[in-house]
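Thread: "does anyone have the structure for this chain?"

Original post by V.I.:
We have the sequence but no experimental structure in hand. Need at least a predicted one for the grant figures.
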Amino acid sequence: MPRIIVAALLLLLTSCTTPPPEIPAPRTPTTPSVDRPAPPPASPSPVDPSSGTPSSRTSSSGAPCTAGLLRYSLGERDAAMGLRTLGIRATNCGTQPLTLDGYPAIEVLDDTGAVLPVVVGRGSFGISSVESFDAMPQPVTIHPGEYATTAVLWRNTYDDTTAPPAVGTHLRITAASDIAAEVFALADEEGPNSIDLGSTGRLGVAPWRAVTPG
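Reply from O.Q.:
Generated one for you, tokens below.
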């Protein structure tokens, strides 16, 4: 009898010291992944025109600066009695003073860009007698924002019907030996212009002239 009681006590003691089974921790629910569209690319920020390169700067009429130095525009014009004159302005759109001396080198181009067979000479070139064209050339210094002028002279005479009349719509101008040539369209806010040489084939060029402010 005592053995039975001891055995029962040992069995009861063993059952009390056995640890309870572990209960797994609850799982955190996972959110299913969803493919989301990539955000649209950011719009490019506007470019400050003042930071553009010299070759990209243009005037209000669209004429570009020549290598960041000059901008050409049309000046005074006269078409009386078949004698034509057309003024040209060269504005310093760079940051340093420029000196122009003598005459610009000019070629006449048609609307396809082809060079016309025109003989270009200094001064009136025997086409007429115009004082401003035949004046002695002087060095002209133009500061940024200032301009100098030149002009071209020709006659609109067509007496050779074996060839079509020559009509120039562009000029290739080299203002000075150290300034790049620029093809300049003969147009402004008033519309297109042209050098209607007919069959004369001759063009006179005036020397550079300073413009007095005011």
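V.I.: this helps a lot. Residues 56 and 64 are 7 Å apart (CA to CA).
O.Q.: and The chain has a mean pLDDT of 78.
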